[in-house]
Fold this protein.
Amino acid sequence: MPCNGDYLAPTERETASQQFCWHLCYLLGALKREIPDWARKGADEYYGDPARVNDATVLLCETIRGLTEDEKERLLYDGRNPQARSLADFWERHEAADKRRQQEAQVRDERERLNDEAEFERLRRKLNR
């Protein structure tokens, strides 16, 4: 039997990749849309497809954001469907993380703006001496 690394636990990125691919397969399949081969493979692989984790995230988010309210109710918020519940949990965590990132970016942008204004004022005073 050939040597392999099956005994190694997957990293957080590998696990996330597998979950994103799994969610994609569920959602795209339920919508009767084409499922990319890499997503099928990533959902079935123990280590997912970490090289495609960003692709999977973007496609999953775009797909969810494009759902009608009826589709969301049926595919995300159906409490009797374990796949829907899992996707809804993912989506709630993902939206919260997006909101945090957006708030952090606003704070960072404001801090940079204030620093730029302070530097501009310092240079203006220096040149007017």
Summary: The chain has five helices and no strands. Residues 82-127 form the longest helix (46 residues). The radius of gyration is 22 Å. Residues 12-127 form one domain.
